[in-house]
Design goal:
single chain; about 300 residues; mainly alpha; two-stranded antiparallel sheet; globular
């Protein structure tokens, strides 16, 4: 697909208008199913970012049945807009300074700022997938004495691949943000347990809750796609990213930045595969491969 690029518009038409599955289109092109899905959903997010999809809700774009239900609006918008002239994917680099600035913007614009800031720092600290983040429990972060577990384990039942793996809360900023959120939970009596254990919180309650104090639901993507996801948490993160000033940012892009940061810190492919719960070294390569740079950019200001 890299050597013979296929426009995302053609992929979208195959799946939405022709009724073909991601897997069928991928088989014709000799690429993975996830590659086709990422290209299509990337185009849809860029159309939504440019406000070309009208009243189509952003959370609909994570569901193939919902996309097909809105096929007329989506295909009309896709054909009316030049794919190459749409807003580019978010290219904000989330270094420490930008994350801190984003947290300040969030705190000034959001009632759920403590939770959303903690969600972002936890993503950047761990590289978890969205459904894994939704399944974290208080006891995965706190020990019985109420101290943060700097080294923990992601339970097999919470991991996307069903395999237990190391989980590190090695960032002081991440720990501070989660602690601030847990203080709010204690004040609001959300998921409380026995006093003097786990800071008075129920260790089996989810670490992050909705505004109403409920767990973020994890469920299959659709009737034909058994892979698990948390659509409400995905929507919550998209809104948090936008309020932080990172329009177009996604949890997957954050995960890519985490992988690249780990690589810069000296992680090899085997370590990245273990830390991020990836099935193969090929997935590591795909996650850490940077997009191609335009020739003009390569040649600019070389000396």
């Amino acid at each position: 697909m890299g050597r013979n690029p296929v426009h995302s518009m053609n992929l979208l038409a195959s799946v939405v208008e022709d009724g073909r599955t991601y897997k069928e289109v991928a088989a014709d092109l000799g690429v993975s199913r996830s590659t086709v899905e990422r290209r299509i959903k990337g185009l849809l997010r860029r159309l939504h970012q440019s406000q070309a999809l009208g009243t189509v809700r952003a959370d609909y774009l994570d569901s193939l049945p919902a996309i097909r239900q809105e096929r007329e609006t989506i295909m009309a918008a896709a054909r009316a807009h030049d794919e190459d002239k749409l807003p580019p994917p978010c290219c904000v680099v989330l270094d420490a300074e930008e994350v801190a600035a984003g947290a300040r913007r969030l705190r000034a614009s959001c009632r759920s700022a403590n939770r959303d800031i903690a969600l972002i720092y936890t993503l950047l600290c761990t590289g978890l997938k969205t459904m894994e983040l939704a399944r974290l429990e208080v006891g995965d972060y706190l020990d019985e004495q109420g101290d943060a577990r700097r080294r923990s384990m992601l339970r097999a039942g919470a991991a996307a691949n069903g395999i237990e793996r190391p989980l590190f809360f090695g960032s002081a900023k991440a720990v501070e943000s989660i602690d601030n959120y847990l203080e709010e939970r204690i004040r609001r009596r959300l998921g409380v347990g026995v006093p003097n254990r786990f800071r008075g919180l129920d260790p089996t309650s989810r670490l992050f809750l909705t505004e109403e104090g409920n767990p973020f639901r994890v469920m299959p993507r659709s009737a034909t796609d058994p892979r698990l996801t948390s659509k409400y948490l995905q929507a919550t993160l998209r809104l948090a990213f936008a309020r932080a000033g990172w329009i177009g940012m996604t949890a997957q892009q954050v995960r890519r930045q985490v992988a690249l940061a780990m690589e810069r810190h000296g992680a090899d492919r085997a370590q990245l595969q273990e830390l991020l719960g990836l099935r193969s070294s090929r997935q590591v390569h795909r996650l850490t491969s940077l997009p191609p740079v335009a020739l003009e950019e390569i040649a600019r200001e070389l000396v």
